[in-house]
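Our platform keeps sequence and structure together, in a single record for each protein. Because each token names a local backbone shape, the row as a whole describes the fold. One such record is reproduced below, unchanged from the form in which we store it:
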Amino acid sequence: MYRNWFSGKFDRVLEIFSKMQDAGVQPDKAACNILVEKCCNAGETQAMMKILHYMKEKFLVLRYSIYKEALHTLKIAGVSDRLLRDVNRHLSSEKFNHDQIDRSDGTTESTCLTLDDKMILYLLNKQSLLAVDYLLDSLMSKRLKLDSGIVSTIVEVNCNCGRVNGAFLAFEFSVKLGITIERIMYLALVGELIRTSSLSRVVDIVEAVVGAGLSLGSELTALLIHRLGCTREPTSAEKLFSILPDQQKSTAVYTALINSYFTCGNAEKGLEVFETMRKQGINVALSTYCVLLNGLERNGLFDKVQSYRKEKMRFKSEICSREMSLEERVCDLLFAGNLVG
């Protein structure tokens, strides 16, 4: 039946594709695979993107042969393959053995995805997220793994639905079973924790990110430490800082920790971190001095304010004659509210 769609102009195919949806008849996986194949043959990347968006919404995937053909088409056209890879996480991870692909239909679903993987995809397609939670919990207790792309998708769907507990359950599943999910999913989960003021859980995520050899980025890490300080959780801020490898402890990250200690009333610890920062050869930013002085004043340590204020003035005159480093600029942007006086 689907082959009949290819008679006539390609615009006609998309028109029928749209009218099917308007009529409540949703194109299935077979239809989408045929349409994408037709797009590849015609070099129609714009139309392909429309179909891929639909497939992403419906959790449909491409056969392996069509996926490779689509990759090639997008590469030739100079178009980003991000959406294609998002739709086909189980293929784009490229962890499977290509020799195991069923050549009869060119699909990896039957050979690479387990029954549990397929069941999760089915439940996600039905938006049965509570059932996904139950299945994840059961699999976790039995220590049965899922494909990393599937786990990433569970995190993404739950975050998109505002189900932070469901997303965090998938994260816990990945940690317990040693599965590394995509960096962007760690970021999405952090965003949900910030949105729901559940920052006490964020340390576990940072630990998993660092353990996977990834980084949240200096700006986000500094922001998290700063937010933990604002919520009076200096122990969590300190633990997050201690997890980071030295190369990720930037000017902004140090400044955030200093500010956290001052905010929580531990001025001596804030001063200690500032001095450690200098001894480690980490660039001090103008905003670092401002955070330090504001913290000392808020905590009543006026005897120390004068000497550090003089240091700040000398530093301020020095930076006028040189170009600031990127680390200093980032720090000044993050702590712009302290740049007074």
User: Anything to note?
Assistant: The chain has 20 helices and no strands. The radius of gyration is 26 Å. The chain has a mean pLDDT of 84. The first helix runs from residue 10 to 22.
